[in-house]
Amino acid sequence: MSTKNLTQPTEKAGTPDNPAARGTSEAKAVFTTLNPDGSRRWIRPRVSLGRYLTRRRVVAYLLIALFWALPLVEVNGRPLVLLDIGARRFHILGATYYPTDTLLLALLAVGVFLSIFWFTALLGRVWCGWACPQTVYMEFVYRPLERFFTGAPGRVPKGWLRTSGAGKALKPVVYAVVSFVIAHAFLAYFVPWSELKTWVFGAPWDHPIGFAVVTLVTIAMMLDFGYFREQVCVVMCPYGRLQSVLLDRQSLIIRYDNTRGEPRGAKSAKKSVSLPVIDGAVQGTGLEAERSLGDCVDCRLCVTTCPTGIDIRNGLQMECIGCAQCIDACDAVMEKVGRPRGLIRYSSEAAMAGQKPRVFRPRVVLYPVVLAAIAGLFALTLAGTGVADVTVMRGLGQPFVKMADGRIENGVRVKIVNRLDKPAEFAVSLAGAEGVDGLEFRTETPVVLVEPGQMVTTPGQIIAPRGAFVAGRVPVSIVVKGPEKFDRRLPFTLVGPSDGGGAGGEKK
């Protein structure tokens, strides 16, 4: 795909006073990252200093520090966050979850997504503009490096590094090094740090799979932040497309004040504005009236500073990530021309229309109620995990076997997951059924030693007299006892012939 290095579109956005120009501009605005001919439009946004950029920079660097700390800082010998897929253990904020904790993990995931939905309903796309890793690393790591090596957009490059071409040559090298480092920080969430260090400092041929994973993640980082950039937000991420269902007219978003800003033009300009026609009658005292232009001086700084290349004056758009760079740019211009700040500001559609803000509305109330219910269910489920997770499963193969002496044998498997931080022994036995004599439990490991976080499955056989089966069933219980007064009794149903014969194999 051919590319063109353009800082801003060549066509000016239309104004409410020039519908023809507006229609032409909209027809040519195929996509913010595409030119009308379909070629890539590279966006190099200008940096607009201001109060929101300062706050975002503080938040971004705190989040980067948190991103590095979560997999490295340990609590009780375990990382704060480690999704160890290979060992099937998930350490999250001091708690350890296992594949058997499907409900807990599902509740945690649903809670995270609902929290984002709630914040979106209240504060718009605050996640995208302030906390998303894509935005944080793109705007506060990679773009500053780009400006250091090639100069700031909209300014004449100065210095040997930027004018000699050395900066353009060095930039991809530095990008590769930074991507390599970030790739390891990312992998630390999935690979224990002790193992990851061998991937970093060991020879590649000693761990080819690990080396391949690091290489692929580094390349992915390079493609993301070096090539795709804002297209990840605009094209790949579905979040912007969900705005129509996540936002309402009361949600806080970045808005341009059309009433105050239109019609646009230079500060000293005058312009004729056609009066509206209502029910066939021209309103006012004449066909046209002279009026001063609005506060918008049409400097287009709000466009050239936008990291996704949109014109916020055209209203709420899917590509807007809520970064507030247009607010900082516009406020600086308003101060220079002696007009109040806030032509572009955080507001809502309802507030812009003169309606009274409503904090309490159905979705804003419903989301926290559902989150509270999820949190309660999560805490209740977590409290019931205890020392170990025990699951009783039927044995592999045939449901039952008829032995040579006429008794019926059922295979059983007892799966034990040790949730303690130390090795523990668990004793497995059989509790007899009421009114049933002659039950026998056989296993090679009546006492099972399970390491911390380890899952062990021990097989066994339960043998019952043939006459004990009623309608082909005998209810029994498997008893598992362990440390800290752990005593779990799990029901298990033996199956056998129901009519004196029945299906099943024969064991001699």
Question: How is the secondary structure organized here?
Answer:
Layout: E1 3-4, H1 19-28, E2 40-41, H2 51-69, E3 74-75, E4 78-79, E5 81-84, E6 89-92, E7 95-97, H3 102-123, H4 126-131, H5 133-150, H6 160-163, H7 166-187, H8 193-201, H9 208-228, H10 230-236, H11 243-246, E8 253-256, H12 258-261, E9 270-274, E10 277-278, E11 281-282, E12 288-292, H13 301-304, H14 325-336, E13 344-347, H15 349-352, H16 362-383, E14 388-394, E15 401-403, E16 408-418, E17 424-431, E18 440-442, E19 447-450, E20 455-464, E21 473-482, E22 486-495, E23 505-507
Parallel strand pairs: 1-2, 15-23
Antiparallel strand pairs: 3-4, 5-6, 6-7, 8-13, 9-12, 10-11, 14-16, 15-16, 16-20, 17-19, 17-21, 18-20, 21-22
Report, as a whole number of angstroms, the end-to-end distance. 73 Å
- What structural category arises from helix and sheet content? alpha+beta
| Share of helical residues | 25-40%
Overall spatial form: elongated
Low-confidence stretches: 1-28, 269-291
Q: Main sheet? A: 6 strands, mixed
Number of DSSP helices?
A: 16
- How much of the residues is beta strand, in percent? 15-25%
Mean model confidence by pLDDT: 83
Q: What is the count of distinct domains? A: 3
Q: How many β-strand runs?
A: 23
Radius of gyration: 33 Å
Outline the structure in words:
The protein is α+β, with helices and mostly antiparallel strands. The protein has 3 domains: 3-246, no CATH class; 253-352, no CATH class; 388-507, Immunoglobulins (Immunoglobulin-like, Sandwich). It has helices at residues 19-28, 51-69, 102-123, 126-131, 133-150, 160-163, 166-187, 193-201, 208-228, 230-236, 243-246, 258-261, 301-304, 325-336, 349-352, 362-383; strands at residues 3-4, 40-41, 74-75, 78-79, 81-84, 89-92, 95-97, 253-256, 270-274, 277-278, 281-282, 288-292, 344-347, 388-394, 401-403, 408-418, 424-431, 440-442, 447-450, 455-464, 473-482, 486-495, 505-507. The longest helix has 22 residues, at 102-123.
